[in-house]
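New to this. Please check this fold:
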Amino acid sequence: MLSETMKYIAALTAVLLSAGAAAAQDRELSVGIGYSEFSRPGSENSALVSLDYRHNAFYEKGIFSARFGAALDVQETGDLFIGAGVAGKWDLGQSWFIEASVLPGAYFESVALNDLGSTFEIRSMAGVGRSFANGTALSLSLSHKSNASTADINPGVNSLHLRWHFPL
């Protein structure tokens, strides 16, 4: 399973790094580490690594910008989520920001009790961060994966991420 996971990570990284030929100022890649707690009794909570891509903003007004994004989350247990959707960012001034995203996608569990009810899952995330003069940023965020009650069971999983953002 680990080699398959690494293939997914390599493929997504290649796609994300080659996405869009436009100027790279708004695009960013973030790498995160964190910990996930599954709601289902008997499931295996574990550490997680995340890779997120944000494309150039398609809407901007005042302190808010909206953009398309994609994400890959890999649990220490081998569980995997890949999704794409919409992300928002509010620039609060003095280098602080709030970020949020909703990314529908596919979830593949490697531990039976980490089953979230279906392959279709939605990752919602909210966080707060600080940008640095060199263009990088650091954020702390909470995410939740759920099938939005589209399946017979919907236990969900919550994660805390520490993410390092890099401009592309």
The chain is about 10% helix and 60% strand. The two ends are 30 Å apart (CA to CA). The longest strand covers residues 46-61. Confidence is low (pLDDT under 50) at residues 16-24.
